[in-house]
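User:
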Amino acid sequence: MHITERVPGEPLIRKRYAEESRWRQAKEVHVYSLLAGVPGVPSVVAVEDGVTTMTLVPGTPLSDAQVPPQCHRDVYRQIGELLHTIHQLTQPEFGYITTEIVDPEHHNTAYMRRQFRVTLDRFRELGGDPATHELATERVAERAGLFGLCAGAVLCHNDLHEGNVLVEPDGDRWRVSGFIDVENAISADPMTDLAKTIQYELSRSPAKYAGLLAGYGPLPRSGLARIELYRLYHALELWNFFRENGTTAPLNDIAFDIRQLAHLP
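Assistant: Predicted structure:
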């Protein structure tokens, strides 16, 4: 869909987009403009037909870096701080972002009921286990009141897992230098962003979890309960993604996660 290359002799990268992916180019330029001033965000230098030139953010994806365990909590504390900074960028409505908010909803309850309905329907269409579908559906119905506790929509990265976080060594510690890939950005409850980072942290490390929440700071009303409900959404969405793409190996583990999350008190 796009090719990323270094600009020789310059601290820049150039992304080339195929014709069918020009909307992704436009979205990326728009989202990076919203994020201007957030630490670790590349600046867009030039936009041409199918080509975007941006400043190069230093660092290695956290998923590829050899970060020692004793540094995990501090790295995730920095990720929490980064998410908190992003979440100060309030948005007028809830929905998927391109160069605007697509099919916007005025309230989080309407938005998340719609998102869960679409995702659960797709899970069933793709052959997901009927009992798991029923369990998840009941859980959402029971806990849907949590959606209304969101005070307003904010900009959410919506994919801030270790593959999209850049780090570099800094003395005896590791520093989060920035992040990449804003293609999934949405306007939503900030707790859904925290939930995705937690759900995609596959080691389920207590140190990483504690660091993330410490860095983020005080959560809003019923923040933890909202995070757990959104984790269920992200697990369903991920199962659908792999099933649609024919990647079957992780499906059983993700389905187990869905059932576990649907049983949480």
